[in-house]
Design a protein that fits this description.
The complex is a heterodimer of chains A (190) and B (194).
Chain A (H helix, E strand, L loop, with lengths): L1 H12 L10 H6 L4 H30 L8 H23 L1 H7 L10 H12 L4 H29 L11 H15 L7
Chain B lengths: L2 H6 L15 H6 L4 H25 L8 H23 L1 H7 L10 H11 L4 H31 L1 E2 L2 E2 L12 H21 L1
Antiparallel strand pairs in B: 1-2
Helix pairs in contact in B: 3-4, 3-6, 3-7, 4-5, 4-6
The chains are: A mainly alpha (190), B mainly alpha (194).
Chain lengths: 190, 194
């Protein structure tokens, strides 16, 4: 039951992009097309789950016993950077088209605050390992959901007659605001 | 480029938030009030200037292949310094900014300047670039926070001059996107006419 609450809570109630403002750069950057957003979502799902697992273990078995919690930021970001590099190498070999499509945004997962944010959040919420994994997966799904919905909206926006000054980023941001407003409807779900 | 231009470009022409669209997570996440925006902006400025200094000093001794991880470690060290200092001396602000303090480390602005500017330029220009960009970032966050606080609370910097409750949605997450969208449009307009 707890897992279901964590799961639903992370996807809908406190959506990582629309309610917590993590991972805004890829949210605005790669959300031009639905297919690219799905690819980005997949990459984030993989990196986020792995990173949260590894950082949780580091926190509990290295940082806590030796009382060196102040190294949290440095050690976590190093782990994430290494993981991203690994995913990049694997994707390059396994799926060159996807690698091409994600382009510059793959190395940028390192600086995707959603990944580091979730790793730190799950420590702050004092999750056990299994909860941390569920939390990471749910957040990645929430991220993908927001990205794909937003990409769909932007595909339609391209065809609309938007006032000149609002074209491009401004209208996209205002649509994101309305999307966030819609997600507030889930507020009392759990 | 002259040093003066190097300094002022961060405010309007290449404003990191409104024009380059970098560092948007803290820009939207912490700007529920002008004070929070200013605090976050100054913390980021410190990290930006310090990491620009160090990156500019050690740029020739770092092998090209490991430069990004090295930059990240340098940035993370300064973020930890800011985090602990703020926790000690400004506990209220630390509570308010919360998760976004450690997240300065993944602010694309900081890494972006280290990679695009400090690793290629002299110490002096790097400091000026860091200061200009950082203060431009702080300015953007303060404006964004100010507008949201004004609409949502009828106050600026906690000084309340409009009675009543204000429009709550501007303090909540949708308001951040909407106010930001209009400010981007406004700055586009200003940059086009000057």
């Amino acid at each position: 039951m707890d897992y279901i609450i964590i799961f639903i809570g992370a996807i809908f109630v406190s959506n990582i992009v629309l309610a917590q403002f993590l991972g805004i750069c890829p949210f605005l950057g790669v959300s031009g097309k639905v297919s690219t957003s799905l690819g980005m979502g997949g990459a984030v799902l993989f990196v986020m789950t792995l990173a949260t697992m590894v950082t949780w273990i580091i926190q509990k078995y290295v940082l806590d016993p030796f009382d060196i919690g102040f190294l949290q930021t440095i050690s976590f970001i190093l782990v994430i950077a290494a993981l991203v590099q690994m995913v990049e190498i694997i994707l390059k070999k396994v799926s060159p088209p996807l690698y091409q499509a994600l382009g510059i945004f793959l190395p940028l997962i390192t600086t995707n605050c959603a990944v580091l944010g979730v790793a730190i959040l799950t420590i702050q919420k004092e999750h056990i390992l299994m909860e941390a994994v569920v939390f990471a997966i749910a957040n990645a799904i929430g991220f993908t959901l927001a990205l794909v919905i937003f990409a769909g909206i932007r595909e339609h926006l391209d065809l609309m007659n938007v006032p000149k000054g609002m074209r491009g980023v401004p209208i996209a941001l205002i649509s994101a605001g309305i999307l966030a407003l819609a997600f507030m409807g889930f507020a009392n779900l759990v | 480029m002259s040093q003066k231009k190097n300094f002022t470009k961060g405010f309007l022409k290449e404003n990191p938030v409104f024009v380059l669209l970098l560092g948007l997570c803290p820009a939207l996440g912490v700007t529920t009030s002008a004070f929070n925006g200013l605090g976050m902006g100054l913390a980021t400025t410190f990290v930006l200037v310090m990491s620009n200094i160090v990156v500019s000093l050690v740029k020739s001794s770092i092998p090209d292949k490991v430069r990004i991880p090295s930059f990240i470690v340098i940035i993370a060290s300064f973020v930890t310094i800011v985090e602990l200092t703020m926790q000690g001396y400004l506990p209220d602000l630390y509570e308010q900014l919360g998760l976004f303090i450690p997240l300065i480390v993944v602010n694309c602005l900081v890494l972006g300047r280290a990679e695009a500017f400090a690793s290629k330029n002299t110490l002096k220009s790097s400091v000026i670039d860091g200061l200009g960009m950082g203060l431009g970032f702080a300015m953007a966050l303060t404006i964004l926070g100010g507008v949201r606080e004004l609409l949502g609370n009828g106050a600026i910097f906690g000084w309340k001059f409009i009675e009543g409750d204000g429009i709550l949605v501007f303090i909540l997450s949708p308001g951040a996107f909407i106010v930001f969208g209009y400010l981007v449009a406004l700055l586009n307009k200003i940059n086009k006419t000057t």
